[in-house]
Amino acid sequence: MPSVTFKSVTKRYGEFVALRDLDIEIGDREFLVFVGPSGCGKTTTLRLLAGLDSVTAGDIYIGDRRVNELASRDRDIAMVFQSYALYPHMTVYDNMAFSLEIQGLGRGDIQQRVQRAAQQMGLEDLLHRKPKELSGGQRQRVAVCRAILRNPAVFLMDEPLSNLDAQLRVQARAEISRLHRELESTFVYVTHDQVEAMTMGTRIAILNQGVLQQIDTPQAIYSAPKNKFVAGFIGSPAMNFFDGVLVEMADQLWFKSDALSLPLPPTTSAQYQRYISQRVICGIRPEDIHDARYLPPSIVTAPLKGTITHTESMGHEVIVYLALGDGQSCAARVDRRSTLALGDRVELAVNTHVLHLFNSHTEEAIS
Ligand SMILES: Nc1ncnc2c1ncn2[C@@H]1O[C@H](COP(=O)(O)OP(=O)(O)OP(=O)(O)O)[C@@H](O)[C@H]1O
Ligand SMILES: [Mg+2]
C-alpha cells in the first residue's frame, strides 16, 4: 500500500498554476526526493501534503485515507521547513522536548530521547541555547531533531540542509539516510541539490514549472533521462547538447552536426530508424568525453576536435572546457593525469555507446 498518493493534484494561486495535475504514489517507507529549479513547485507540494495549503483540484491520500479536508495536526506528519520555524523564546532543549510533552511522555523518557537525538545531530553542547544564539546550520539541525522526536508516519523535509557547510552537509546527509533506515517511516524530501537527490532518494521526482517530468530511481534518471530538461538538470557539469541531423550512410547511422560526426552503435539503429534525415539533439555527458591518452578499456569512441578554453583540476579528475569549430562549447571530465592545457588544440574521444538522443521538437528522449 502506498503511504502517500497524489491524484491529479493541481494548485493555483489566482491565475498562476504552481502545480499541474500531479500524479504520484509514494510507497510505504520510501525516501522520495523532489528536485527541480527554484519556483518549480517543490515547497507547494509539501505544503499541500502537510495540510498548510489546500489543493485547487485533485486528491491527496495518506495511507488509504483521503486527507484533503483533514487538519494538519491530524495527518501524522512532521515537517522541517525551509525556514525552520523554531520557537524563539524556548531553548534548543525545549524546542525539541515540546512535542514529546504534548504526547504526555514522562520527564526521564523525554530527557533520554532528546539527548540521543541531539547526539546524533551533534547538538549536545547547544541544548541550553536559544535559536537566536545559533548559526543557520545549527538551527536547521535542531529542526530536523525536533521532527525526528515526533516520530510521525511521514516526514516532510524542505531543504533541511541548505544552510550547512559542505562537510556538515555530507555528515547530515548520511545521518538522515540512516534515520530513514532506522525509523522505518516514509520520507518526502525537497532539495535543489542534485547530490542530495542522487545519494539519499530511493526515487527522485523531478519537477519543472509545476509539472512532473520524471520519477524513477536515481540510476535510471541518470542513465535514461526522459527528456532534455531532466538530462540537463541532473549531472554536474551538465550534459552537453548538440543540434544536428541523423543520417544513414552505407548501413551506418550517424549523428552529424557542424562540430561532430558520431557513428551510432548498430544495436540502436532500429530505434532511430524513423528519425533518419531529421533534426535531433544529441546529449553527451562530460564523463563520456575522454582525453584520448587515458581511455578506459574497451570503449568505442569517435573524435571531437576543439580548443581548450578553461581547465579545472578537481584533484580526482580534471574538467576541461572546449570551444568547438562551430562556436559551441562543451565540457569534458577527463582523467586526473591529463595534461591538457589552456589554448591546446586537441582531439578528445567521445564514447559513442552512451549517447542520448532527443527529438528536436518535443525534446523527449528517442528510445
Ligand atoms: N502564496 C502564494 N501566492 C502566489 N504565488 C505563490 C505562492 N506560493 C508560491 N507561489 C508561487 O508558486 C511557485 C512555486 O513556489 P514553491 O515555493 O513551491 O517553489 P519551490 O520549488 O519550493 O522553489 P525554491 O527552490 O525557490 O524554494 C513560485 O513561482 C511561487 O512564486
Ligand atoms: Mg521551496
Automatic annotation (TrEMBL):
Pfam families assigned to the protein according to its UniProt record, in alphabetical order: ABC_tran, OB_MalK, TOBE
PROSITE patterns: ABC_TRANSPORTER_1, ABC_TRANSPORTER_2
Residue stretches making up the ABC transporter domain: 4-234
Keyword terms of this UniProt record: ATP-binding, Nucleotide-binding, Transport
Gene Ontology MF terms in the entry: ATP binding
InterPro entries in alphabetical order: AAA+_ATPase, ABC_transporter-like_ATP-bd, ABC_transporter-like_CS, ABC_transpr_MalK-like, ABC_transpr_MalK/UgpC-like, Mo/tungstate-bd_C_term_dom, NA-bd_OB-fold, OB_MalK-like
Stored CDD domains: ABC_MalK_N (cd03301)
KW Protease (keyword) present: no
NCBIfam families in alphabetical order: PRK11650.1
PANTHER family linked to this entry: MALTODEXTRIN IMPORT ATP-BINDING PROTEIN MSMX, OSMOPROTECTIVE COMPOUNDS UPTAKE ATP-BINDING PROTEIN GGTA
Protein's UniProt name: ABC transporter ATP-binding protein
Organism: Leptolyngbya subtilissima DQ-A4
